[in-house]
Amino acid sequence: MSDLPASGPDWTHIIGELRSSVTITDAADPEQPLVFVNDYFLQLTGYSREEVIGRNCRFLQGDGTRSETVREIRERLLQCMPVRTEILNYRSDGSPFWNELNIDPIFDTEGRCVLFVGLQYEVTDRKLLEEEAAHAARSAHRQSRALMEFIGKLNHEMRNNMNGVLGLLDIVLMDESLPDDVREYLELAKGSGDTLLNIANDALDLAGAANGRMKLERIEFNLRQVLESILKTHSARAAEKGLELKLAIGGDLSQRTYGDPHRLRQVLDNLIGNAMKFTEQGSITLSAESLPQRTESGEQQIRFTVRDTGIGIPEEHMDKLFKAFSQTDVSHARLYGGSGLGLKICEELVGLMGGRIFAESREGEGTAFHADIPFSTEG
Questions:
Q1: Of 199, 205, 343, 365, which one has the fewest beta carbons inside 10 Å?
Q2: 3-class secondary structure for 118-152?
Q3: Three-class DSSP category at 6
Q4: Cβ(305)–Cβ(369) below 8 Å
Q5: Chain-centre distance of CA 281, in angstroms?
Q6: Which of 251, 259, 1 lies closest to 115 in space, CA to CA?
Q7: In angstroms, rounded to a whole number, what is the distance separating the alpha carbons of residues 195 and 372?
Q8: What are phi and psi of 38, to 5 degrees?
């Protein structure tokens, strides 16, 4: 211990009384042997001072110790660099414990690394909790995937049968001699069937996204034409409700875009359909603008916004927007209908395309959904 201060407080005694494990190793020796350990280190490891002084700390390692962690520690010490890591060690009785290592080099007046001072903390309880949480997360993920597989198969069967029922209803409704009351009942049945078919399609999309089966295309398309086509699809419904549909495209956006126009259409169709459902008067605006930042691969970030003048969303319900089978208010579900799957599917699709989706809303003043999606302007 000649490298510790020779005068002043009794540092050895003070360090020895710390309720943290303290070690000092000789950096000048290639073996980096221990030259000092405090009492808490001995309590933690179960070894005696005579058993550890003069030995390299690797005697604490065992079969479960990650070789990558050991290599990282060794490389940093060889470069006289600090070490911050966690490692699985073993006590003298063979019992394992997780050790949080904090090692710092000490240099003499000539800049030579002469000592390594280490502080160690047992973090076994924390690591066990982390492992339990990770196991629970993996288990939940497996269960979720299994549930989505089941939902996908169930809705596939339902969709096939609903297509058959709806086809037969279409044939019957072609009969011009049907009494008015019978035609009304059949049209109500067809409307209910269309709703069930939409739910089945939504559930199939959600199951496909959750299980990684949904793939992206990369083709060239004209952005303005796609957006105009999307609005045209909703124009009849908007006219029926007396709503104005607007399109605003930033002048700096490239019209030649590479990506998946089908998935983009699916997202925007969902958002506009949702806006149409909750807007009784006013307008719905679809806009696209270029964001200043680009992705690491140089892709252009485009913000697509669907803004309506509808009923808005209470602040306390904003966190429910992108949860499957969830609507902001039970009364909304009764009044406006819907499965609560559309926004979840949008989130999955936008995430698949490498973007993010979020919303802004004030109750009674309308809602704006923003989808920031990267697209390439080069083939």
A1: 365
A2: EEEEECHHHHHHHHHHHHHHHHHHHHHHHHHHHHH
A3: coil
A4: yes
A5: 36
A6: 1
A7: 29
A8: -90, 175
Q: Is the pLDDT of residue 7 over 60?
A: no
Burial status of residue 4 (CB atoms within 10 A of its CB: 0-12, 13-18, 19 or more): middle
Which of 263, 241, 244, 225 lies closest to 355, judged by CA?
Answer: 263
b/e per residue 66-92 (b: at least 16 CB within 10 A): eeebeeebeebbeebeebeeebbbbee
> Per mean pLDDT, which of 29-43, 132-146, 195-209 is the most reliable?
29-43
Can you give the pLDDT at residue 204?
Answer: 64
Name the pTM for this structure. Answer: 0.50
Q: Which long-range contacts (CB under 8 A, 24 or more apart) does 40-48 make?
A: 41/120, 44/91, 44/97, 44/120, 44/122, 45/21, 45/89, 45/91, 45/92, 46/91, 46/92, 46/93, 47/91, 47/92
- What integer is the mean pLDDT of 208-234? 82
205-243 core/surface letters (b: 16 or more CB in 10 A; e: else): bbbbbbeeebeeeeeebebeebbeebbeebeeebeeeeb
Residue 246 backbone dihedrals phi, psi, to 5 degrees: -125, 150
Q: Provide CB contacts within 8 A for 103, sequence distance 6+.
A: 73, 77, 82, 83, 116, 117, 118, 119
User: Nearest to residue 346, comparing CAs of 242, 281, 267, 231?
Assistant: 267
* Between 13 and 132, residue with greater pLDDT: 132
Helix axes 124-173, 180-210, angle to 10 degrees: 150
What one-character-per-residue DSSP string does 300-362 give? EEEEEEEEE-S----GGGGGGTTSTT--S-HHHHHHH---S-HHHHHHHHHHHTT-EEEEEEE
